[in-house]
Amino acid sequence: MSDLRAELAEALAEAEWDWLAPHARRDSLIVVESGLDVVDVAVAIANDDTARVQPWIEENLIHKPFPTQLSDWNINQSTRFNALIVQPYVLIQEMSS
User: Fold this and answer.
1) pTM of the model
2) Which residues on neighbouring strands pair with residue 82, listed in sequence order?
3) Distance of alpha carbon 83 from the chain centroid
4) Per-residue pLDDT reduced to its tens digit, 40-51
């Protein structure tokens, strides 16, 4: 499992909204709130670890983008994100400005 974590950590990339917008249109974006580590979330999703993922969903710590977020990101195209692909999803976390 540590190999998966290392592989995912290496795949973590910085992205701008214009790269992520097509994934939003396909409804494949998952927002990871700032309190969580994107790589930890990716490992849990990749391993289908529902015991870890379900509480995050229930607490809205991971969720589909809210309409207000999509609107903000479409207006402010320079917003930067940490992004990580875990098929079929793209996990994103807004970077602090």
Assistant:
1) 0.93
2) 14, 93
3) 6
4) 999 999 999 999
